[in-house]
Each structure stands twice: as C-alpha cells, then as structure tokens.
Amino acid sequence: MDRSEKKAFVQSFSKSVSDHECMIVVRHNRIDSKSMTELRKSARSESVSFRVVKNSLLKLSIQEDMPDVANHIKGPMGVFLAQDPVAASKVISHFSKKKKDLFVPLVGIVSGKVINAEDVAVLATLPNFDQMRSILLRTLLAPATSLVRMLKEPQASLVRIVSSYNQKNA
After folding, report:
1. Are 42 and 73 in a shared domain?
2. Dihedral angle computed from the Cα positions of residues 126, 103, 84 and 22, in that order, rounded to the nearest 10 degrees
3. Number of independent structural domains in the chain
C-alpha cells in the first residue's frame, strides 16, 4: 500500500467509524482462519462488521476523534462496527468464551462514550433492540389486555353456569 492508498483508507475508515453507533476494538492472538471465518459469519448474521486493520492506520483513523481508544492499540487488533451495540457485544462475548485468552475485548466507543471490556460484557447480557421493542409493546398492551379479560369474564362465567346446568339436567 502506498501513501495515497493509505490516506484513502484512513479517510474511508474514519467515515465508516463515524457512521456507526458502536466501535469495539479487540485483541486477537494466534486465531486460526477457520475460527476467524466463523467469527465473521456470526458477526454478519447480526449486522455487525469485523475488520482487521493495521495498527498504524487504525490509530490515524481514530486519533483525532477518539484519543482514549488510540492509546490502547498494541498488538494484533480487530475492529467491530455496528449500529446495535448489544448485537456487537453479544458476538464478541460469545466468541471470547470460546477463545478465552486468544480473543479479548479491550475498549470501544458507544454513542460517543468510551467503554471497557467489563462494559462490553454487561452490554452482552442486555436484550437487543427487537427484544426491547417486544418487551415495551407487551408492557404497553398489558393494561388493555387485562381490561378486555375483565370485561369478558362475567359473560364467560354466565355461559359456564348455564352450560353446567344444561349438562346436569340433560
């Protein structure tokens, strides 16, 4: 890669980072290609992108906007970019359980805030956006559902009593 290609890469990667809600940097050591392919597939299935980026280019890409993250970049690094921080955290957490010492989340940015490895683990335990929506919808609909059941119950009780009476006398 010559200088102009590096400069173009830094600009495009910086734009890509700013376009996503979440960026998490991980360290990976001696991970075989089969496992890396599996990681990329699981990331894609959750709409998360994973890239291995040269450290010097990664530092140049994020140094202005995220100097706290740039200080953690040493060794073989990978970057997860996602709109849903929970999905990215779940992918990372699941894979890091399989490859304990070989794959470690270091630092990230979620909605402009710096997070550490413990925060990534906490995010992985949260429900994703679709699950949160369904929980919220159930919560909003619960009073209406209860009201409908309560209004329906006297008629249902009357029907059961009449039915029981008819079966007894028949």
Report:
1. yes
2. 120
3. 2
